[in-house]
Amino acid sequence: MRWTSLVRLGLLACLAGSGSAWAQDKLGLEDALRMARERNGDVRAAFLNVQSAKSRVDQSLGAFYPMVTPVWRWDSSRQTGPNFPGAVTSDGSQSEISATWRLLDSGQRNWSLGASRASAEAQVQSSIQTVRQILFAVHQQYYDALRADELFKVAEAQVGRAEKVLAQTEAQVKVGDAPEKDVYQARADYLNAKVQQLVARNRSSTAQAALKATIVWNVEKPLPPLEPQPQPEVFAEVPSLDTFVERGLRQRPDLIAERLGVEVDRSNASRADREASFTWTLDATYNRSVTPDVADGRFVTFLVSLPLFDGGQSRAAARGAKASLEASKSSLSQSERAVESEIEAAHAELVQNTERVGAAQLAVEAARKNYEAAVEAQRLGAAGTNIVTVSTALVSLVTAESNYVEAVYDYFISDVRLRVATGDPIAGEAGA
To answer: What are phi and psi of 304, to 5 degrees?
Structure first.
């Protein structure tokens, strides 16, 4: 299924040059993921890397088949000198066909084929991981862009509330129900809200620019409005960490690729060790000359060789191959520990963000009631209520609303991050 998925992704990438027209009112997450699959250069490169690795397998497999080589040669010569009466010239052509087949050897071809097959499968897994990372980037950037839009709405609401408080304060000062200094505080709150609105707008533009780059959107054209994601209401219980770690170590494409890399180095070490000692080959050759004379030749050759002295090259190559094998094993062990740590962090993040969403939602409800009560109390001129009370309530409400937006989109991203960390299917991945 992994191979089929990658082929599909690659074929879509190859069609990216046709330039699909995307005329739509809104851009959904699935649309963004599809664009990345079709247009992103790294996705296309991942598919082409697999094709290259598959070609190397075919090349290694070809060593087991006969090699047939037709040859045609034409010569023209002219010789002069004291030993030649006059000038001697000759013209002629020769054509022949030869076939050579290595029937047996001491294992080098098998090791080469095993290494190339393992290398090709490792490239498949590495390419799958590359595609998954790109799809995760689309998820993250899409959610970041939505987050920025929501925070801009919070900033807009803050400007409206601050403007209302300023107008209400100016009215109270005018009739003598509040000191004139309260207007300064209300006006400062309003101007600060305008600044935050500009900051939020810039954050939205930056987030959309990152998404454009990943899905290869025309930088000169604005993105259509993003489709909002439904707010989480019911949270499934997050399974235990051990479950994720076991699954991640077993199915992470990059770990599978590293394990296959160890097999490649093991085959290379075996071949180098053999080449540093006795090697043997059994070849059959057939040769037929067509012109100028017809002649046939048949040969069977059994060759045994030993690098008695080559300056230590073959033994050094064998030691180097064994060292590379041990290095691959050590690297794989460290990668497995790193994956365990990544899964642990992603698991803890998802659990915490799940709790954050619920707590932030309660904080928004409490802060909204507090703000509404403070504004109403100021409007009615309640004792003990002044601009500081209203300003504090406004800041608390904006903080609570911003925290809720941050918590929601952190939750969305952490859910996808844990799936990527454990190798589980994610939205946008073919076959997911």
So the answer is: -115, 130
- pLDDT tens for 216-246 read 999 889 999 999 988 888 788 899 999 999 9
The pLDDT assigned to 25 comes to 83
- Judge contact between 430 and 2, C-beta under 8 A: no
Q: What is d(CA 432, CA 426) in angstroms, rounded to the nearest whole number?
A: 6
Find out whether the peptide bond into 66 is cis, omega within 30 degrees of 0: no
Strand order in the sheet with 87-105: 67-80, 87-105, 279-291, 295-305
| pLDDT above 70 as % of the chain | 92
SS3 (DSSP) at 155: helix
Q: Distance (Å, rounded) from C-alpha 220 to C-alpha 211? A: 14
Widest Cα–Cα separation across the chain: 134
Q: How many residues does the structure list for the chain?
A: 432
Question: What tokens appear for 361 in the block?
Answer: 């939602």
φ and ψ at 312, to 5 degrees?
80, 10
Strand partners, 88: 79
The pLDDT tens digits of the residues spanning 139-154 come to 999 999 999 999 999 9
Yes or no: say if 410 and 356 are a contact pair by the CB < 8 Å rule. yes
Rounded to an integer, what distance in angstroms lies between the CA atom of residue 125 and that of residue 256? 7
User: What's the CA angle centered on 338, arms 333 and 340, to 5 degrees?
Assistant: 95
Contact 145, 226 (CB under 8 A): yes
Range in 368-372, 388-392, 408-412 with the lowest mean pLDDT: 388-392
| Runs of H (alpha helix) within 216-312 | 241-251, 253-275
Q: Is 180 exposed, middle or buried (0-12, 13-18, 19+ CB in 10 A)?
A: exposed
